[in-house]
User: Which sequence fits this backbone?
């Protein structure tokens, strides 16, 4: 499989391979929003005593995906805006909060495979699944063309697959077997790095026994773990239905839900970046107080904290009090507060750049210290072509930028902005510091909104036409 573009990003602050267990909290702050989910259908009341695994809320727009109580505790609904707060936290036997009637209904319709899919949804494992093309949550009762499983996480500072797999290889292979039992004949592709190490060889040997798993070995370049890129490279077309995509943590969750019938309420997340005292991995439950994590690991007084990796993570605001159910990592970058006078012409070994500028061409690659200032200051496009060179989607980011800058949305559509996978590599390498990714994300959202409005208008007109037709027929019948 040939990839284009990509870049091996070397940054300081990479999480080490340990998993540290955070101390048990006294209070949990469960955010009602995460990147894909909005848990607006609250299932509990103020003062309710809940057990670990109970459903607190559901997202009605995402197949009813549940927000589970990670621990036993007392529900406080109004204590923090956009959160369910659990007080008097206690560890108790977790239980599977599943509705018997729904299970019977699904079993009649879909048999054991249907029950297993219902379990994945109810026990919180389905939250780890993506539609490779759209990034949305797929329909748990739907049929995919194929499944892509990735053990790689190449966005710097998100939880690493190898760390999560360590000592849990058996759970992982059991999870793959469970996943395969949900399918009829659809293939499972396992993406892993094309490296030789003892652990990588162990995984290869383990997987070789599974004829139904096809291995995809990929170079360690960002963003070759992107599911949309992988699905396209494999030749799948979105018009033929979804391709399910899931990472290491998702397969481990499948194992937990289907082998043990236990809720998936623990997350392994990373904390990395140059504003962190000890970049590492943390074992926490959703709702874990952010402040406790900041107090322990963030040493920079002026730091920007991101929810996610350095390329795609959004700024974590003070209003978000706890870890959300989709968090894969926390990135902390020092805020650049002062700029050096004429810094852009001062030569130096420490100037990090995608291009060989300053003295960087004379030294070997090394892990660089990234701040929010990145390097340089905003200026117009200098037509260096770096963005096109690294873009994994084979489009021309500078051209899209030019069109969008001039509000030429149709031209941007013709230049295939839809193929952009929002990886952010173009923004990273751009020497003019143009935030290309944000521009493309906003433009794609605008185009999607306009298309949706046109679709609704067409639907409305079609319904009006049908009503008129029926009224005309009725009038004709009455006159006869
Ligand atoms: S954000 Fe889009 S345009 Fe930029 S490199 Fe990634 S895929 Fe290409
Ligand atoms: S990387 Fe930046 S400056 Fe270079 S061509 Fe692309 S948009 Fe222009």
Assistant:
């Amino acid at each position: 499989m040939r990839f284009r573009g990509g870049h091996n990003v070397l940054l300081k602050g990479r999480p080490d391979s340990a998993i540290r267990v955070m101390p048990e909290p006294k209070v949990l702050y469960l955010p009602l929003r995460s990147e894909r989910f909005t848990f607006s259908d609250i299932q509990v009341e103020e003062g309710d005593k809940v057990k670990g695994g109970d459903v607190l809320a559901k997202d009605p727009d995402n197949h009813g995906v549940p927000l589970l109580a990670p621990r036993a505790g007392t529900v406080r609904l109004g204590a923090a805006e956009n959160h369910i707060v659990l007080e008097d936290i206690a560890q108790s036997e977790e239980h599977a909060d599943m509705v018997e009637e729904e299970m019977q209904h699904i079993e009649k319709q879909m048999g054991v495979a249907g029950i297993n899919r219902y379990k994945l949804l109810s026990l919180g494992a389905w939250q780890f699944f993506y539609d490779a093309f759209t990034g949305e949550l797929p329909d748990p009762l739907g049929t995919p063309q194929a499944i892509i499983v990735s053990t790689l996480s190449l966005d710097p500072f998100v939880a690493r697959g190898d760390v999560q797999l360590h000592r849990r290889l058996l759970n992982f292979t059991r999870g793959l077997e469970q996943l395969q039992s949900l399918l009829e004949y659809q293939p499972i592709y396992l993406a892993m790095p094309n490296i030789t190490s003892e652990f990588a060889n162990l995984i290869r040997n383990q997987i070789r026994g599974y004829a139904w798993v096809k291995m995809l070995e990929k170079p360690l370049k960002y963003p070759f773990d992107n599911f949309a890129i992988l699905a396209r490279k494999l030749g799948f077309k979105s018009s033929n239905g979804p391709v399910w995509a899931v990472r290491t943590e998702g397969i481990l969750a499948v194992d937990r839900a289907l082998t043990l019938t236990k809720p998936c309420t623990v997350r392994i997340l990373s904390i990395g970046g140059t504003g962190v005292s000890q970049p590492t991995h943390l074992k926490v439950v959703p709702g874990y107080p952010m402040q406790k994590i900041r107090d322990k690991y963030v040493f920079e007084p002026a730091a920007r904290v991101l929810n996610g990796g350095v390329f795609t993570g959004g700024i974590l605001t003070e209003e978000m009090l706890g870890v959300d159910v989709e968090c894969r990592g926390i990135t902390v970058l020092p805020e650049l507060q002062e700029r050096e006078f004429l810094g852009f012409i001062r030569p130096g070994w420490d100037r990090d750049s995608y291009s060989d500028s300053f003295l960087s061409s004379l030294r070997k690659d090394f892990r660089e210290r990234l701040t929010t200032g990145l390097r340089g200051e905003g200026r117009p496009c200098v037509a260096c072509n770096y963005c096109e060179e690294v873009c994994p989607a084979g489009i021309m980011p500078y051209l899209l930028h030019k069109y969008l800058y001039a509000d030429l949305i149709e031209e941007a559509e013709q230049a295939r902005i839809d193929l952009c996978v929002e990886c952010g590599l173009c923004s990273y390498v751009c020497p003019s510091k143009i935030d290309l990714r944000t521009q493309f994300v906003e433009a794609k959202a605008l185009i999607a909104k306009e298309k949706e409005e046109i679709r609704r208008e067409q639907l409305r007109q079609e319904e009006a036409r049908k009503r008129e037709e029926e009224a005309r027929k009725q009038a004709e019948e009455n006159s006869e």
Summary: The longest strand covers residues 83-90. Residues 381-387, 397-398, 401, 429-432, 434 surround iron/sulfur cluster (ligand 2) (CB under 6 Å). Residues 110-262 form a domain with the Rossmann fold fold (CATH 3.40.50.11540).
